[in-house]
Amino acid sequence: MELRISGPQRLNGSVTVSGAKNSATRVLAAALVTNGRVTLRNFPLALEDAKAKMSFLSGLGVEFEQRQDRSELMVTVPDLSLEDIQSFDLPIRTTYLLAAGMLARCGYARIPYPGGCKIGSRGYDLHMMVWRELGCEVEEKPDYIEIRGRLVGGQVDFPMSTVGGTENALICAAVARGETLIRNAYVTPEVRDLVAFLREMGARVKLEGTSLIRVEGDGALLGDASFSIMPDRIEALTWIILGAVTEGTVFVNNVPFDTMEVSLLHLRDAGVDLFANSDTVMVSPDCIGEHGVQPFELATGTHPGVISDMQSFFAFLGLFANGRSVVFDYRYPERIAYAHELAKFAPGAIEAEPGRITVHGPRRLSAAQVASTDLRGSMAQIMAAICAEGESRVHGVELALRGYNELPKKLAALGAEVVWRA
Ligand SMILES: CC(=O)N[C@H]1[C@@H](OP(=O)(O)OP(=O)(O)OC[C@H]2O[C@@H](n3ccc(=O)[nH]c3=O)[C@H](O)[C@@H]2O)O[C@H](CO)[C@@H](O)[C@@H]1O
Ligand SMILES: C=C(OP(=O)(O)O)C(=O)O
């Protein structure tokens, strides 16, 4: 899918941040461990990653009911049928989170190999470690990973900060028989959301500090739950940065400030002074002082710092800064393919090498034809096209739709004139 955009465009209007992709898609998998009915509010129903997971789960017999107008999703899980899975083609990252529900219901699981954005090495050995530590056997088959056994409590020691590993261990432990201790857990805001959801279903999860989690399970499925997905901090930052540089007045609603403090601090340090109340940010030309956006240097890494998924938006902001900005990414040093595409809007302004992107600003952007390489990179390219002089084409924007709920509607609400081509 291609997006054609004639710029530069000044954006005005208001946009409401949706439920977080990196919570909703996890909570959806965790809903498999209930024998009750789950109602998910603030659920990003149009998100491609959520739709892909729902479609796979429908094939296993999971029943969904949607209320589009209220962003609600009702989930009921009758018995799962794993023998008839026709295709294991599910190109999203968190397939491994489906294992807990399958194991708890069927005594075995068959899950697609984890996909997701191609942003460098993304192993899954720690997931296999989780299943094994909790009493199961794991076999890598040609088309899927098979896990067999009954989940029993155990001790999971992570050798590194892993979001996915922590989530997997949590969901498995919630339906395992006995106590599970998760050490060196990595508790991000989205992981906290998952913990809150598991508790809502009746799981006994105790956080001791931020890196030790104790889960008490009795080997049974959990109960009913009604839960509201947290707003997406990455989406919030996207609209704030876009609003700040397009010289209109943009209101961003439903901003989860407490989950993105460091990112907002970096924006302020760069001279972008936001107007904010309890959950709304207003950005207008007045937010940027008379000396313009200031160059900055920052490193993405683990929470509460700037996470890697926000990297491309800071690189984009660097194009408007008065001088040389540097963005380091220690977690995903190979996450630079998009930067080569972004550079086409300002030849010579961006140097990308593994782990480090240098941006020489300020630059007037000119139209370009670019290819999406990953979700956040695709969105940064759309932002650049809105700011660039002339008609740009961004190819492969289905990657952006993986992570931005109702993107066409939101761009239209901000007055962006864009043409979507299949
Ligand atoms: C710590 C971190 O920054 N996590 C990010 C990671 O989460 P995601 O959950 O995808 O990845 P993890 O946090 O689990 O993994 C972080 C690192 O550990 C490695 N690893 C992980 C699991 C495993 O079994 N073996 C293994 O080697 C990965 O290759 C990766 O380099 O990507 C997401 C999408 O960009 C981001 O939203 C998360 O903020
Ligand atoms: C890379 C991302 O997601 P995933 O882990 O689903 O590929 C992201 O959300 O930016």
Summary keywords:
pyruvate, binds phosphoenolpyruvate, single chain, 422 residues, binds uridine-diphosphate-N-acetylglucosamine, cytoplasm, 5-stranded mixed β-sheet, alpha/beta, cell cycle
Provide structural commentary:
The protein is an alpha/beta fold and 422 residues long. It folds into two domains: 2-17 and 231-421, UDP-n-acetylglucosamine1-carboxyvinyl-transferase, Chain; 21-228, Enolpyruvate transferase domain (UDP-n-acetylglucosamine1-carboxyvinyl-transferase, Chain, Alpha-beta prism). It has 13 helices and 24 strands. It has helices at 21-30, 48-59, 99-106, 125-133, 163-174, 189-200, 233-245, 261-269, 311-318, 337-342, 375-387, 398-401, 407-413, and strands at residues 2-7, 13-16, 37-41, 63-67, 72-76, 108-112, 137-140, 144-148, 155-157, 177-183, 204-208, 212-218, 225-228, 250-253, 275-276, 280-283, 297-301, 306-307, 324-329, 350-353, 356-360, 369-371, 390-395, 418-421. The protein has a five-stranded mixed sheet. Strands 22-23-1-24 form a four-stranded mixed sheet. Strands 2-14-16-15 form a four-stranded mixed sheet. A hairpin with a 2-residue loop joins strand 20 and strand 21 (356-360). It is globular. The structure holds uridine-diphosphate-N-acetylglucosamine (UD1) and phosphoenolpyruvate. Uridine-diphosphate-N-acetylglucosamine binds next to helix 4 and helix 5.
